[in-house]
Amino acid sequence: MNKKRYFLPSFLVFMFMFILSSVPVLAAEATKQPANPQGFMAVLTVIPLVVILALLFKKVDMLVAGLVGGVMAMLIGGITLAQANDFFLKAIPSMLTITVPIINSAVAMAVFKSGGYTSALTLVRRAIKGKVEYFAAFIVILQAAATYMSGIGGGSAMVIAPLAFAAMGAIPELIAAMAIAAAVSFTTSPASLESGVVSKLSNVPVAQYVDSMRIYWIGFVVLAIILAFYGAKKRNAIFTGEENEEVRNMTDSELFKNTIPVIFLLFAVIFGPFVNKAVGMPILSPLVYTIVTVALIFICTKFNLSQSVNAMVDGSNYILVKLFSVGIFLAFINIIGETGAFTAIVGVAKLAPAALVVPATVLAGFLVGVPAGAYVGSVLTLVLPVAVTLGFTPMQLGFVAMGVGLGSQMSFVNITMQALSSGFQTPIIDVVKGNSKWVGGCVALLLIISFIF
């Protein structure tokens, strides 16, 4: 029934787009819309984003909401069907080239299916004797460390989220804590694209930028750890499920053997960049740790070689489907960006009083990151030039980057959010709603910090 209810409006909207874009709007093709709309036009370009967010929070399908907003943007910006088709054909491949999260998702699922996580959780359960809140804190530490050292939040979450879900189920505070830890880590990581963008646009060495932000990264990670601990404690979380007879009869050494693939995969994701740099070659590259992890599954668990390989291939199904749908949605977001909507949002920061310019830019970055958080690095290329022209210090640029990163953790198109949704088997709309309270609190704290420093 829901499909029928949404299909007719979607079809009518599409036909409306086709007719108007093919006939009157074609006349506007020769007159390209300015990249920085002013006055009423600036307000008008932001309306499609507001409409999309409103529809998404009403649980309208992501692609339907994106279509409605994309059509509005086409009409507002004079964008033709040919241009929209170009956005569409480029957006989907761009999402499917995010290979590390895809690989990590596939390998993590193979480890999960082979019983590695079950064995690890059984060992932890025996060790901490029911104190799940400590395990929740440990999960956030893993998420922060993996993201900071690899520079990739989504890839880390793909490995760690299933481990957390298998242990405690979907605790909203834990999910939010992992999202916050990921955001502040990949925006200040010495290995991330985002830090590279900050360095390139500001002509500040990555090491200098990372050093200036390290204390704030640690501070927000500590807050995330406390949040996860609080959530597990508040909800009286327990380890989900009972040990089955086979696991119950296994010794600790047998359980540890089954856990070896988990340990290796987590080590490769967290410490791989450092090991590669130390030895001067990609000894723990995705190719290497994929092959080694599958081999360890074969050696250390009951899976034979065919089962190990098939489990890895099957593990890629969910994330590939999600990335395809996100790519379609991103095409509509890019259409909206072509109208100058994001530039208009960022430009508002220039109107703030001198003392509030930095917080205003941080807030603008957050607001852009919410709808367009699929590529935080790309969003930074839009937001940071304004901050650079205003003479921001590396630390202030870091605050803006963190703002965009936190905004991405309320975005339906962010890969880390998709990973958390997948790993915790929770609809992404519920992840967004669960994150909003705690991410909003972190943004408020970030605004205060950016005002003081």
UniProtKB/TrEMBL annotation:
Annotated keywords: Membrane, Signal, Transmembrane, Transmembrane helix
Keyword DNA damage tagged: no
Transmembrane segments: 37-57, 64-85, 91-112, 132-153, 159-184, 215-232, 255-275, 287-305, 317-336, 348-368, 397-415
Protein name per UniProt: Citrate transporter
Residues spanning the signal sequence: 1-27
The species this protein was found in: Clostridium malenominatum
